[in-house]
Amino acid sequence: MPLRQTAPKLSPEQYEANFADIAPPLTRQQAAVEAARCLYCFDAPCTQACPTHIDVPTFIKKIWTGNLRGSARVILEANILGHSCGRVCPTEVLCEGACVMHEKGEQAIAIGRLQRYAVDDVLDKDIRMFHAGAPNGKRVACIGSGPASLACAAEVAKWGYAVTIFDRHDLAGGLNTYGIAAYKTRAPDSLREVELVRQLGVEIRQKTEIGRDISFAELEKQFDAVFIGVGLGETWGLEIPGDNLHGVYGAMEFIEQTKVKPFHHLEVGQRVACIGAGNTAIDVVTAARRLGAETVYLIYRRSEREMPAFKYEYDLAKKDGVIFLWQTQPIRVLARDGAVTGLECLRTRLGEPDARGRRSPVPIAGTEFTVEADMVVRAVGQRPVTEFLRPVPGIELRKDGTVVIHERQQTGNPKYFAGGDCVNGGKEVVDAVAEGMAAARGLDAWLGSPRAKG
Amino acid sequence: MADLSVNFAGLKSPNPFWLASGPPANTGGQVMRAFDAGWGGAVWKTIGEPIVNTTSRYGAIDYNGVKVMGFNNIELISDRPIEDNLREISEVKKRYPKHLVIASLMVESKRESWHEMVRRTEDAGSDALELNFGCPHGMSERGMGAAVGQVPEYTEMITSWVKEAARTPVIVKLTPNVSDIARIAAAAEKGGADAVSLINTINSLMGVDLDTFAPRPVVAGKSSHGGYCGPAVKPIALHLVASVAKKVRIPISGIGGIGYWNDAAEHIALGATTVQVCTAVMHYGFRIVEDMIDGLSQYMDDHGFRSIEDFRGRAVPNVVDWGDLDLNYKIIAEIHPELCIGCQLCYVACEDGAHQCISPYTAAGNGKKNVNGMGVHVPRIIEEECVGCNLCALVCPVENCITMKEVKTGLPAMSWNDRTRQRAADPGCALPPTPGAD
Predict the structure, then answer these.
(1) Phi-psi region of B278 (alpha: psi -120 to 50; beta: other; left: phi over 0)
(2) Which of A41, A303, B51, B299 has the greatest number of beta carbons closer than 10 A?
(3) Is A132 inside a domain boundary?
(4) Would you call A97 and B370 a contact, using CB atoms and an 8 Å cutoff?
(5) Model confidence over B200-228: pLDDT tens digits?
(6) How many domains does chain A have?
């Protein structure tokens, strides 16, 4: 069933302009000038702030000296997804946020863009950076092919483990391929990074679901250790009447469409209401505007102050002309003839702070009003896809579906390690990489670091 | 308003700023435009028997995104006929009688040839002569330029030949490519020179293309040593100007790394009466003289100097032998934590590169935190260890964050030479105390 009113299609050029790289690659000269600004701090705060502790001053110095391959090596040894992290990391609250230039009253060094510049060089020239270690006879399985699994797989492959990644999707890369705003990175960029991991001899089996296509018994027989990096799945429901109507989408499903289909094949409502105010909600509202939607609302129960999205992301949505409805709680999805026509909402007031210190919204009776929309998108967080782990003895899941881990990313079942969004509930790509690498060290230690003998 | 006019070996110049002999002073058209822009004088690009130049001719060193920190050239003297140069000198002098036109000359080392050239140039109306005894490339291999200026006897002899014929002041331009430039300056003075100018360019190779292995500047895959100049050479020029100022009594025209009024003021403070500029004009054009005049006037007004003579050479007595420096003067570094940005460059510089007198963290920090909630790591000077070398203050990227403060030792001034004199007079005497000697 079609949407009640769809946004008119744009020209192919307009779509490309709307989704053009938000931080285009630096030119050689721009990179040289920016690299020269770096003070080359000792014991640098940027490196400390990075979850993967990339040696930022060293890689920037190498850009300055013209040693791009060496620069890329410094980055990729610390973080095999250095390219995508350079593009999608919220650098303003990580490395660039820690840059001493702030204290100096100057613009922080553009660390993310320099990082991309260095890694692009080896990716563009298809320079092989890493080789698999001498086989140590041990085998590791990774479930999921997102950032956490790729990081874990690359790390242990360098130590001589035979690694197989199992993934249920058509394409590898997980969130990086399917779930990041198209103006930040496109699916082919993510697949280039997957190739870096494949070059280490890692086998990737797509469209394969553990527990369905391959039993856990089989998996445990074939592999000495298993890493779980399945990330998050479906968006949580709104739990209000009309939630299941045609025209109500989950945020990730909506964004995935922008990553795997040509823009002109996508249907977007003329008026779009997105519920939620996290970074994913920003991806939704900016994508909707860039696809041509005339009016896009971001609806949030709390106020601007409690908004979880980063300032940088919020600014993007503001620039895109998104309308923010603060302290607004949807109570019903409205429809006519089966097609969404809008949302019935209540105003809220802010009550006492909750456990996380955010003030809880309290709906105010009698303040009902209608937000007209042809399309509603839920961006209220995602549920981990961990139910399939239930049969595995020892693995403990929390109420929200996240996997419980102990030291060194090990689960309650010693053979299983876990990391990334399915453990932390949804953080940054760089956190997933850091946890995947921590799990690599953990399972290696558990297996007795066999590379030392080989 | 300060009076910038100077009297240089009897020549009245409206200000101390002259174009140095080089590409900017190659033609009458350029020199007239330079005078319109405010230059007080111009030393014409060296006149001699016409030569043939190469392409390319210039090389440069950039640093941290700053273009042309250092510059070099393998260009020779004027490639235009002597008559053309002399005719244009006449024209310029007719139109700009109050500005100075100084002819730079390079002639084969024969007495009659020099006499002839001096006569022709002075007949054309030049105000003075500058003898190019310094050009390090191309001409020196033909027995001219630096081949003369590197040997005191030749310098004295040829200067005396020129003086036999000259009716206008004779300036000898000195090459820095010698072990003791003051000796050459003294030889020129002995030969009768009315003034010296320095420095000419420094022998150099600008670099090597690491793909083709061609040195720069490249001429069909090869290169040759050339003359180095530009901002990078100023410290060398200042040292040589000062050492010549201590040696000779004739006036000095300072050259080397002058791009701004303060560079010029430093040359003057070390004894120069006029200054000459080439590279900065090649980079930015004649217009830079406007701020040179403006800035120098402001500086002089601020300091109550009414004329150049009021501060010329003032720094010369402060340039002394190391043995005369006061060993009882003591400074140590001081970090101002509120300005510290936590880069730790002072720490690593002192720890690895100097005297291990800085601790990386101060327990208290400076109270500042970055967006990630991390405090700024403020290093701490270990005062009892600090040798007062300046390194931390030099590498600190924040102005005034690290300063050097004087520590009163309570000891009288005493130099190394004082100590050795005391010991010589009384070998049994105890050495007087010095800071840090306990």
Answers:
(1) alpha
(2) A41
(3) no
(4) yes
(5) 999 999 999 999 999 999 999 999 999 99
(6) 3
